[in-house]
User: Which sequence fits this backbone?
């Protein structure tokens, strides 16, 4: 049978109902004062902090940082998609220029830019693939952020 | 009516309906119901834990402990003094009681105060007793010492 009581801890001294409790085994320590619970079991006393202010703040900062990363990733993906669109449009335009002139006699030489037009298409595809990978990473970070928010809520 | 005293904590139990109220009328002792038994009003809120320095029924506890009220009493060395209506350290009791064998039972003058010293120097910590309404006296089936 255990007894659980509300307690506080200041400078390593656990206090319960106004009296300092001797020989307490503190199971969780932080650098700041805390509120927690005192567990009496088999003649011994144990203190467990309810929610470490340091851990709580650290989790909050981490969640915010991850949120900013996800936002940045999403913005990067948006930018890359715009770049792909622009490149595609440029490639289409250059493709029109690339068309060999018609009419007349003889054959026109291949425009110099033909190879570049092909490269534009390849680069656009590569950028699209990169944007997809960034989106995957952003989704993974969002999932981690959600888990940390749940953990933070459990610590309160 | 049966009375069990465990480490200075009193537990009254009815074996027939009406015994408790009859006893209270006869003795004048205020008994109240707690959990599954009756006890003295003063110790009805005896805690199931103790912390050194924390007041426990008017006296600072000396041990960190959790358990039944009588186990807490034992851990802290306290008894209920029904004569003074106080919880006191068992070692503060100086009363001497003469306990004699009467057949299979034990007899003593009146209700034994927990902590009392016997003529042989033993200190009483508890007992098992029955109240005889006919004799208006207590009959002890067992006495515990420390």
Assistant:
């Amino acid at each position: 049978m255990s007894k659980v009581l509300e307690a506080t801890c200041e400078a390593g001294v656990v206090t319960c109902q106004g009296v300092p409790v001797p020989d307490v085994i503190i199971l969780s320590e932080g650098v700041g004062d805390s509120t927690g619970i005192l567990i009496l079991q088999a003649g011994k006393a144990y203190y467990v902090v309810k929610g470490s202010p340091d851990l709580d703040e650290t989790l909050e900062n981490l969640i915010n940082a991850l949120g900013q990363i996800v936002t940045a990733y999403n913005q990067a993906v948006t930018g890359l998609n715009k770049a792909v669109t622009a490149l595609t449009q440029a490639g289409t335009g250059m493709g029109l220029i690339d068309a060999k002139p018609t009419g007349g006699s003889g054959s026109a030489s291949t425009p110099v830019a033909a190879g570049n037009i092909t490269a534009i298409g390849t680069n656009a595809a590569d950028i699209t693939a990169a944007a997809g990978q960034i989106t995957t990473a952003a989704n993974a970070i969002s999932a981690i952020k959600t888990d940390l928010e749940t953990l933070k809520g459990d610590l309160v | 009516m049966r009375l069990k005293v465990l480490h200075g904590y009193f537990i009254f139990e009815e074996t027939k309906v009406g015994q408790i109220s009859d006893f209270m009328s006869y003795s004048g002792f205020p008994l109240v119901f707690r959990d599954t038994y009756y006890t003295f009003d003063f110790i009805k809120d005896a805690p199931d834990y103790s912390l050194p320095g924390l007041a426990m029924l008017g006296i600072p506890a000396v041990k960190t402990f959790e358990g039944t009220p009588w186990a807490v009493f034992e851990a802290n060395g306290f008894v209920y003094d029904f004569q003074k209506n106080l919880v006191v350290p068992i070692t503060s009791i100086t009363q001497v009681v003469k306990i004699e064998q009467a057949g299979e039972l034990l007899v003593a003058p009146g209700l034994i105060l927990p902590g009392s010293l016997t003529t042989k120097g033993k200190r009483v910590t508890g007992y098992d007793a029955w109240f005889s309404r006919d004799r208006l006296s207590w009959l002890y089936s067992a006495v515990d010492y420390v």
Observations:
- The mean pLDDT of chain A is 78.
